[in-house]
Amino acid sequence: MTIQSCRPLLNVVDCARSVMFYRDVLGFSVVDTFEADGAVAWALLKSGTAELMLNQNARAGTERQGRTGYTDVVLYFQVASVHALHRELVRHGAAPSEPEAQAYGVDELYVRDPDGYELAFTSPSDLSRRS
Question: Most exposed residue of 12, 31, 85, 96, measured as fewest CB within 10 angstroms of its CB?
């Protein structure tokens, strides 16, 4: 058996707020939504080949917002330039880490979504392009 794709589902406290973050700050497109009681309760988002589902869940809690890095799930996304993404994130009022060159050949930055999920973004390292 070969797995053909992976589509993570994140349980979030406020689905509409999370949709706005992923759409307006990170540039995801909203592919589909489901509403319950007049509010967005589930959404499928896409950016390039990456897909992500958001699910309204009052029990989701926000305890992960206070966690330090690498203590829970980290979603990794590859982009053309984390340096350009950093400028965009700051422009949108997000609080990303500074891009950092890693020994394994990529530049990385991290940002948290409104529910505290840790998102990592990588691109080929500027250092590796100079060699």
Answer: 31
- Cα 94 to the chain's mean position, in Å? 12
Write down the number of H helices and E strands in the chain. Answer: 3, 8
Long-range Cβ contact pairs of 93-96 (< 8 A, separation 24 or more): 93/25, 94/25
Q: What pTM, to 2 d.p., does this model score?
A: 0.85
The region that residue 121 occupies, defined by phi over 0 for left and psi between -120 and 50 for alpha, beta otherwise, is: beta
Query: Which 3 state secondary structure label does DSSP give 38?
Result: coil
b/e 107-125 (16+ beta carbons within 10 angstroms → b)? bbbbbbbbbbbbbbbbbeb
For 79-123, write each residue's pLDDT tens digit: 999 999 999 999 999 999 999 999 999 999 999 999 889 999 999
Instruction: Report the CATH fold assignment for 1-59.
Output: 2,3-Dihydroxybiphenyl 1,2-Dioxygenase; domain 1 (3.10.180)
